[in-house]
Every structure is written in structure tokens, then in C-alpha cells.
């Protein structure tokens, strides 16, 4: 058990929360005998300062040789005029690793946080869906035209790009019994690439995942329904790069707590137990992936020990689950986080960072999580 990690803490609060999440990994190593080899390197502003580039060729090469990449966050105002900008480092790593499926869960790590949502508790309560965003194609890539009076971003999708990301949705759905329902989100009423997306998606599900309930949903109407009826989409939502970008930010807003949200970017479908080697598989039979919190480097609170470590810790749980097939350990970490966030509800001490309206610092919150992980 275990494997090789490339750890890129990045800038500002990145290193602060990454080091706390790695303490949780230490505890898991002790408890299970798993061994995670850790190679630390630079990305973003830290890499610009040392190498005059947001990421080096050496780091890019390492990113495709390890079993998983654990990322903090990159950027900050001090690199505001840098060429390239610090955030470009992460984009180059994503492209090098071909991590085309970006997963953003939308649920509540803790029931007692439901009241932080801008949505009424009776509407948001019980929400539990994951957005799978195609992250290596579509309108964000391809040959762009930028002229004085004309701009154009070709919004293209090829069969292979559609197939590989909807297979991630199908495989994830099949990890549940009964399988999770899947919504394929597009604008097939106006976009040609959407109509191709929709047709190929149905082909793949019919052939490869006949047990999964797959439905179509228009992106604009989903944007509204996520606010008025979010629990109607409990399950998986798979969509292209543009819609996924917008809808996943919207779903992050539903929870009202940026510091709590994890993400995973995968290079292939999650491996079924005992599966053959396949697309994006790593040396330990998991899937190659990059894991990072949704939030950025939060320069406004960095260096003060105030950052909420939960988004980074929950990203670690996703890494254990998808890259190392350690589902049980992932659940232990998620339960520990929920316990700490619910500590007041249990009549215990309230341990919460400032972004959640509490007074705890990063260390206090992290120690509480570590304590719970040891107990579980
Ligand atoms: P941000 O997510 O860093 O911060 C937004 C607000 O949320 C700030 O008030 C911050 O203090 C708060 N916040 C964020 N994470 C928190 C945490 N863990 N605990 C407590 N409070 C937290 O977004 P912002 O300010 O737009 O960007 C700051 C820098 O981060 C920029 O340079 C941006 O480009 C970069 N960034 C990097 C990302 C990445 O590495 N993937 C993603 C988003 C932004
Ligand atoms: Mg976005």
C-alpha cells in the first residue's frame, strides 16, 4: 500500500494547509503500514522566484512519473506582472498530466454547516452531487484568434475527448449499488458540438454502462435548478469545460464555504478492484490524479495561521480514494472532518476557523482533525 507523491505546496496559504494535510497522511501511514514517498517541489510564484518560470521542465516530467500529485495553491499579488503568471504553472501541469476529468463534490462535510449556505436549509439539506468537468479541451484550448476587431475561440470536441470523460462518469456511477444517476449537461438546442457530445455520451452509456440511468439536461436550466432544486441532481453531473467551469463555481457557492471544498483531476476512470491496467492507471492500480482544494492562495490571510485546512485535507481523502484505492481510509478522514465541524452540535468544543465564523487557527483545527482520525 502507498506510492509515490509529488507535492507542490505553491504559495501563501498553500504550504500552510498542505503541511497540515500531510500530518493526517502520517497518521494513516502509521495505522495501515502504507508508505508514501514524498517529493516536494515548486510551482507558481515560488518557482518564478527561483527559476524565473511558473513550473520547470523537471517538475513537469516528475508530474507524469508519480502516482499522484498533491497541490496547494499558486499565485499572489507580488507576481501580478510576472511573465508567465504564477497560475500558468498549474495549467501546464494539468495539460502535461492529461488530467481531463475534474471532479468537484458538492455536499456538506458537516450537517451543522448547512446554515452557512446562502440557500434555505430546507432546499439545500441533503444535497450530494459531484460535477465532472471536461478539463483538457473545448473552448479553452485550440487555435484562438485575437485581433483588433475580432475574437474567436473554437469550441470543438472530438469523439475521443468525449468518450474518455463520460467513461469516468460511468465508472464512478458503477462504484455505487444501485449505480448513481448521471446527468449529461450541454446546450444541444443551439451548439453543434453539444449535439455530438450528447449522441456519443448515449452511445457509451448504452454500450458500456447499461445499468446507469443517464439523462440530458440543458446547462442554462441547470444553472437555475441548482439553486431552486439542488437535491434533484444528487448523483453525478458530467459536462464540458465551459459549462463545467461555471456550474462548478456555482455549486461551490451553494455550500457557502470556500475553505471546505476539495477537488480531484483524474487522467482516467477510477479503477475497479482487480481491474486490468488501463487509461491513466498508476503504478499501484489507482488512477493518476492531481488533488487540490478549490480555494486559491488567500494572500489576505497568509502567514497568520488562520487558513482553514479542511479543503486540503478533504483533497487528501480524494487522493487516497482514487489514486490509492484506500476507500476506507478516505472515509475515515471525511468522517473525522465532519466530527470536528459538528463538535458544537455534540456538546463539545467549537473548533472552527474564521471563515466559518469561529476563532480557531489552522493548527488547532488541524489537531482536532488529527485526533479524530487517530480515534476512528
Ligand atoms: P482565494 O480563494 O485565494 O480567496 C478568496 C477569499 O476566501 C479570501 O478572502 C480568502 O481569505 C478566503 N479563503 C480562501 N481559502 C481559504 C481558507 N482555506 N481558509 C480561510 N479563508 C480562505 O481567491 P482569490 O483571492 O481570488 O485569489 C488569490 C490568489 O490565488 C490569486 O493569485 C489567484 O490567482 C490564486 N488562485 C489560485 C488557485 C489555484 O492555485 N488553483 C485557484 C484560485 C485562485
Ligand atoms: Mg472557475
UniProtKB/TrEMBL annotation:
<keyword id="KW-0560">Oxidoreductase</keyword>
<keyword id="KW-0460">Magnesium</keyword>
<feature type="domain" description="Isopropylmalate dehydrogenase-like">
    <location>
        <begin position="4"/>
        <end position="369"/>
    </location>
</feature>
<dbReference type="GO" id="GO:0005829">
    <property type="term" value="C:cytosol"/>
</dbReference>
<dbReference type="GO" id="GO:0003862">
    <property type="term" value="F:3-isopropylmalate dehydrogenase activity"/>
</dbReference>
<dbReference type="Pfam" id="PF00180">
    <property type="entry name" value="Iso_dh"/>
</dbReference>
<keyword id="KW-0100">Branched-chain amino acid biosynthesis</keyword>
<comment type="function">
    <text>Catalyzes the oxidation of 3-carboxy-2-hydroxy-4-methylpentanoate (3-isopropylmalate) to 3-carboxy-4-methyl-2-oxopentanoate. The product decarboxylates to 4-methyl-2 oxopentanoate.</text>
</comment>
<comment type="subunit">
    <text>Homodimer.</text>
</comment>
<keyword id="KW-0479">Metal-binding</keyword>
<dbReference type="InterPro" id="IPR019818">
    <property type="entry name" value="IsoCit/isopropylmalate_DH_CS"/>
</dbReference>
<dbReference type="InterPro" id="IPR024084">
    <property type="entry name" value="IsoPropMal-DH-like_dom"/>
</dbReference>
<dbReference type="GO" id="GO:0051287">
    <property type="term" value="F:NAD binding"/>
</dbReference>
<dbReference type="GO" id="GO:0000287">
    <property type="term" value="F:magnesium ion binding"/>
</dbReference>
<keyword id="KW-0520">NAD</keyword>
<comment type="pathway">
    <text>Amino-acid biosynthesis; L-leucine biosynthesis; L-leucine from 3-methyl-2-oxobutanoate: step 3/4.</text>
</comment>
<dbReference type="InterPro" id="IPR004429">
    <property type="entry name" value="Isopropylmalate_DH"/>
</dbReference>
<keyword id="KW-0464">Manganese</keyword>
<comment type="similarity">
    <text>Belongs to the isocitrate and isopropylmalate dehydrogenases family.</text>
</comment>
<dbReference type="GO" id="GO:0009098">
    <property type="term" value="P:L-leucine biosynthetic process"/>
</dbReference>
<keyword id="KW-0432">Leucine biosynthesis</keyword>
<keyword id="KW-0028">Amino-acid biosynthesis</keyword>
<protein>
    <recommendedName>
        <fullName>3-isopropylmalate dehydrogenase</fullName>
        <ecNumber>1.1.1.85</ecNumber>
    </recommendedName>
</protein>
Amino acid at each position: 500500500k502507498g506510492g509515490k507523491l509529488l507535492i507542490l505546496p505553491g504559495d501563501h496559504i498553500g504550504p500552510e494547509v498542505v503541511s497540515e494535510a500531510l500530518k493526517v497522511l502520517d497518521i494513516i501511514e502509521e495505522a495501515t503500514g502504507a508508505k508514501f514517498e514524498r517529493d516536494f517541489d515548486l510551482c507558481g510564484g515560488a518557482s518564478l522566484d527561483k527559476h524565473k518560470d511558473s513550473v520547470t521542465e523537471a517538475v513537469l516530467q516528475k508530474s507524469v512519473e508519480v502516482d499522484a500529485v498533491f497541490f496547494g495553491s499558486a499565485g499572489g499579488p507580488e507576481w501580478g506582472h510576472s511573465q508567465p503568471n504564477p497560475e500558468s504553472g498549474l495549467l501546464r501541469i494539468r495539460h502535461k498530466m492529461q488530467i481531463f476529468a475534474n471532479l468537484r463534490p458538492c455536499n456538506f462535510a458537516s450537517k451543522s454547516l448547512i446554515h452557512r449556505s446562502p440557500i434555505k436549509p430546507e432546499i439545500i439539506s441533503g444535497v450530494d452531487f459531484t460535477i465532472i468537468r471536461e478539463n483538457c479541451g473545448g473552448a479553452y484550448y485550440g487555435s484562438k484568434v485575437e485581433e483588433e476587431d475580432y475574437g474567436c475561440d473554437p469550441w470543438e470536441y472530438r469523439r475521443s475527448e468525449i468518450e474518455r470523460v463520460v467513461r469516468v462518469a460511468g465508472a464512478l456511477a458503477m462504484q455505487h449499488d444501485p449505480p448513481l444517476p448521471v446527468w449529461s449537461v450541454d446546450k444541444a438546442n443551439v451548439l453543434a458540438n453539444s449535439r455530438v457530445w450528447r449522441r456519443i455520451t448515449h452511445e457509451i452509456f448504452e454500450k458500456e454502462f447499461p445499468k446507469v440511468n443517464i439523462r440530458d439536461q440543458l446547462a442554462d436550466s441547470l444553472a437555475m435548478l441548482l439553486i431552486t432544486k439542488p437535491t434533484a441532481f444528487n448523483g453525478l453531473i458530467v459536462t464540458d469545460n465551459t459549462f463545467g467551469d461555471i456550474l462548478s463555481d456555482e455549486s461551490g457557492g451553494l455550500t457557502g464555504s470556500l475553505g471546505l471544498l476539495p477537488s480531484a483531476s483524474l487522467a482516467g476512470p477510477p479503477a475497479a478492484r482487480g481491474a486490468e491496467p488501463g487509461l491513466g492507471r498508476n503504478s499501484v492500480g489507482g488512477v493518476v490524479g492531481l488533488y487540490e482544494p478549490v480555494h486559491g492562495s488567500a494572500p489576505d490571510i497568509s502567514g497568520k495561521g488562520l487558513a482553514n485546512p479542511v479543503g486540503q485535507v478533504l483533497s487528501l481523502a480524494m487522493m487516497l480514494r482514487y489514486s490509492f484505492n484506500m476507500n476506507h481510509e478516505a472515509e475515515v478522514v471525511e468522517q473525522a472532518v465532519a466530527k470536528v465541524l459538528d463538535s458544537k452540535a455534540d456538546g463539545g468544543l467549537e473548533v472552527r476557523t474564521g471563515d466559518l465564523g469561529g476563532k480557531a487557527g489552522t493548527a488547532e483545527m488541524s489537531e482536532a482533525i488529527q485526533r479524530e482520525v487517530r480515534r476512528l
